[in-house]
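Hi V.,

Quick status before I head out on leave. The structure for the redesign project is tokenized and pasted below; the design run finished overnight.
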């Protein structure tokens, strides 16, 4: 249940533009990997990860777009008392200026989690949308 909560918190904090709450879901040494169709995945960690996403969250919040990351399927493929690995399917939607609603992309996530003290955190996250994003979409 705690891991499912963590995965849903990932989506909710993104949609609320709560960057500090989103970063709190990750370990300090987390690896974030983004792979757009037709492009090699890019991995980020440490300050480069945090700096990139702080800027991206801010730019996107000012764009007038409102995203919803809808988690539909979670499959835990491995789990111990202190580690877990899951594959996750989702759908990303967008509303613009309270008038236009569209489906942006399906998305496949893959997460590796570790338990620190009593809390589960994301140690690695793969983000694989079905379409490439352009124009700040």
């Amino acid at each position: 249940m705690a891991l499912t909560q963590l995965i849903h918190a990932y989506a909710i904090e993104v949609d609320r533009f709560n960057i500090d709450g989103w970063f709190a879901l990750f370990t300090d040494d987390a690896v974030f990997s983004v792979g757009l169709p037709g492009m090699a995945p890019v991995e980020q960690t440490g300050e480069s990860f945090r700096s990139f996403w702080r800027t991206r969250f801010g730019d996107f919040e000012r764009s007038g777009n409102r995203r919803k990351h809808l988690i539909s399927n979670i499959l835990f493929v491995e789990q111990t008392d202190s580690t877990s690995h899951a594959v996750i399917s989702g759908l990303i939607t967008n509303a613009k200026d309270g008038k236009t609603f569209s489906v942006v992309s399906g998305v496949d996530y893959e997460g590796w989690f570790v338990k620190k003290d009593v809390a589960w955190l994301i140690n690695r996250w793969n983000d694989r949308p079905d379409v490439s994003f352009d124009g700040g979409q």
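Above is the designed sequence. The first helix runs from residue 2 to 15.

G. will cover questions while I'm gone.

Best,
W.
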